TrEMBL record:
GO biological process: protein import into mitochondrial matrix
Chain segments carrying region Disordered: 24-51
TM segment ranges: 70-91, 107-129
Keyword Membrane: yes
Subunit structure: Component of the PAM complex.
Membrane-related topology note: Multi-pass membrane protein
Ranges of biased composition (kind: Low complexity): 29-49
Alphabetical UniProt keywords: Membrane, Mitochondrion, Mitochondrion inner membrane, Protein transport, Transit peptide, Translocation, Transmembrane, Transmembrane helix, Transport
Protein name (database record): Presequence translocated-associated motor subunit PAM17
Cellular compartments per GO CC: PAM complex, Tim23 associated import motor
Amino acid sequence: MLTKSAPLRLTALRISTPPAMTILHTHRNASTTTSSSSRTNPTSTAASPQPNQKLEWDTFLQLRKQRRRYNLISSIFTSALGTTAGISYLANKEIDPTQMIMGMDPIILFGLATVSCGALGWLAGPVLGSSAFSVVKRRVMGQINEREREFLQHIKKNRVDPSFQSFSNPVPDYYGEKIGSIKQYKQWLKDQRAYNRKSKNFL
């Protein structure tokens, strides 16, 4: 009876071992997947763009166009503010319409002073707009300034001689302020060549 029961115990042991092995196998697979995922995480973070990378030309020109909008909006704001301040100041002044001021009618003089306040506000607008743009884009201002220097070198190299301008042949965007994309830059180069052709024909 003992010899017959031994094989049964062995078979029972053989049958009961595979579940434990499968548990160990799944545990090893889980550990390998977690280790592989932990290894892949640094590569994903390394793929993020570096802050010192150069800006693409399209990106730089879009930012340059955006800065012009900042300057325009701030100029409108400061011009309105200057005009309002001038009106509020001059409205409290007592004037005698019958007496001349600096040889001019007081109403005309006050009108010119109000317009001057608005003009001064308009000229002060780009300073405020550029400062606001620098604060908003402070992380990439170094890259913008670097591209700006390169861009101005291209403009100086390819722009026309303004001494040959005329009423029928005006200078096409001498400082390149209207350039906001690569397509507009190519059009700007075409306009410079067209200006040179016209100036040579007149000579």
